[in-house]
Each structure stands twice: as C-alpha cells, then as structure tokens.
C-alpha cells in the first residue's frame, strides 16, 4: 500500500519495565519489530516514557540505553536515524528518540540546572531528540497534564527557553488545555523558535476526552505548521466502535489539519484498569495492520492521496523541514 511513519510508541518502556520483554515478540506489544516490518513502517519515533514519581530519571536513563541496544543488536530490523538524520529507502525501520514527560530528565525535588545538563548530555549522545512531551496525565513541576487544570509553571517557562532554536518540538498530546495555551503564548511573547506538534492525539469533537484536541488547538497547530498523530487507544477513539477512527481522520481532513500516525502502542501486561480493557480494539492493535487501515480508508471514499498524506507525506514533509533527509 504505502510506507508509514509513526510518531509515537512505548517500545522502550516495555523493554525496560516488563520482565522478559522481547523486541521481537509481536504478541506482547503492537510496535514489536516484526509488526513494524509487516506494516512497512519506515520511521518509528520511540518515546522515553516515565511517570512523575521517584526514580523517573533512572528509568528514563535505562530507556535511552535500550534505544542504543536496539540500534546495535537488531541491525537486520532497525537503524538509528537520529545520528545523521537520514531516512533510507530500504526494508528496515529508522528509529528516532523522543521524551514523553519531562519528569524523565528532572525529578520534582532536583535543582533545575540538572534538567539542562541532562538534555545537553542526551543531545551530545544521540544528536537529536524529535520532541518533548513536557507533562503526562498528571501535574509535574513544569506544568499541568491532561487530567489536571494547571497551566505552565516557571520551570516550564525555563525549559521552553532552553528549547529555543534547538529543533526539538514541543508535543501538546498530554497537556491540559490551559498548559497548551500557556505554552503557545509564552512562545509568542518571548519569540521562541520551537516547533509545535501533537504526536498522538485525536479530535475532541469526535470523542470528548481531555486527551483529544479541541478545535482551538487544531487551529493553532495549523497556524504553526504542526500536525496531529491519530491515536489507536480505544478510550481516545470511541469505547464501542473501532470504525470511529475514520471519523477522526475525516474530521482532521475537513479542518485541513495535517494528520500522521501516532498509534501509541504500549504494553498492557502490567495494567489493570477494568474500564479501559481492552486498551486497543483487535483491528487496531498492532503496526502490521496499517495496510488494512489504509485499504479501508479507500473503501470509505478517502482518496489515494488522502491515504498517502496520512501514512507518509505529511510526516516526511515536516521531517524535511526539521533537517531530515530521505534517501
């Protein structure tokens, strides 16, 4: 069908936190390497995800180690695109790291300077971070997550100043609405050069959930040459109907919002929230299903161009604007 770029998964958290984790176990996590290959995923962004709690920095450090080990130990499957910013025309999957929750680079009781020292060290080691999702579900020292009503805090403002001009996007996927608009206002008022994206967020007009984007943020993403990544998690699509994913896609198209894939595949083996089980619909449970999803889009009267833009074109154009080269 079409090659795919996906902007968010939690493979690294799975490898570090789940006993016996195996990057090749296609049944254990939707973004296992065989699933990426089956879906013709040309680039997969690997998020370093940590919750806001004691030990978050150590856990994030182990995930960065896991990123390096993937690139070293699975060379038949993947390669590191962060070092030279090149996406190659081959059958392997390019990998690029990102940070999901800045608590992974600074805990709540540590001095702020450590945050910037650690980010400098990460950039020296990996060359590139694609984006930082500053918060997760809850509030942290930087600001309010999507289940809070807090906005941007002073430490968050300092983090934004650090990011100025570094080609590290700020991801709005886990901010409160107030936090998102505070970020945008701070960038505008201080004239900061920071890309803005929503790497794995759906449309709130289709599914009224605080993880999804309100129309006002859709307009801001468009204005700032950003995009949203359609998320496959059941709670953010529709609890009862897997086909609503196509309504999210259609809504973004109607709004002229560039849309990419941000499936958000994670391990569910250590989660037990009865209200959310199953976390993924069977039809949207792994990256190997991308060809079927794109085929069904055409059955639903999306054009071939619509499919290509979602799967690859929107993402590749944005990546080129951020210095990546497609060979």
Question: Could you explain the architecture of this structure?
Answer:
The strands form 3 sheets. Strands 1, 2, 3, 5, 6, 7 and 8 form a 7-stranded parallel beta sheet that branches. A two-stranded parallel sheet has the order 4-11. It has a two-stranded parallel sheet with strand order 9-10. The radius of gyration is 18 Å and the shape is globular. The protein has one domain (4-326): TIM Barrel (Alpha-Beta Barrel), CATH 3.20.20.140. Helix 4 links the parallel strand 5 and strand 6. It has 11 helices and 11 strands. The two termini are 19 Å apart. The chain has 327 residues and is α/β, with parallel strands linked by helices.
Fold topology:
Layout: E1 4-9, H1 11-17, H2 33-38, E2 41-49, H3 56-73, E3 78-80, E4 86-87, E5 93-100, H4 113-126, E6 131-133, H5 154-163, E7 169-171, H6 177-190, E8 196-197, H7 215-223, E9 228-230, H8 234-237, H9 245-254, E10 259-261, H10 290-299, H11 304-321, E11 325-326
Parallel strand pairs: 1-2, 2-5, 3-5, 4-11, 5-6, 6-7, 7-8, 9-10
Helix pairs in contact: 1-3, 5-6
CATH superfamily: Metal-dependent hydrolases
Q: Percent of residues in helical segments?
A: 25-40%
Strand content: 5-15%
Based on the coordinates given, report the CATH architecture. Answer: Alpha-Beta Barrel
